[in-house]
Design a protein that fits this description.
Aminopeptidase; about 30% helix
Length: about 150
Amino acid sequence: MKIVVDDLSGPEIAGFLNEHVQQMLSITPPESKHALDLDGLRKPEVTFWSVMDGATLVGCGAIKRLDAGHAELKSMRTSPTRKRSGIASLLLEHIITEAKRMGLTRLSLETGTAEFFLPARKLYEKSGFVHCEPFADYQPDPNSTFMTKVL
């Protein structure tokens, strides 16, 4: 497997991300869905990675810079057929390493509180993220939990 910076121009990643947004909308009320669409992920403050297994897209993730030292983890997704195969752990480790290389000192994230998100919350906790108050423009929301990690 290899992790590559993706310019989000290909149809495969567009479809993969559309599935992500649709899945989030099926689980979370629209006012609590914070997944970025393609235009949001193409902004200059976002770095986006795809995980490729040969020619097959199996995962993705991004960071959105909030200020000089703080970024938000966005769009973490593993292909449904590859869940629990280590892709998310590999990608999260890569993103943390790259965030440090970029000079960031903190990574934060928002994820859901529903049972569906429990594996993600456990992964983040295992990687050293701790629960925190809402950050950036987020507001308290019973459908959201917020986590942060000092790098």
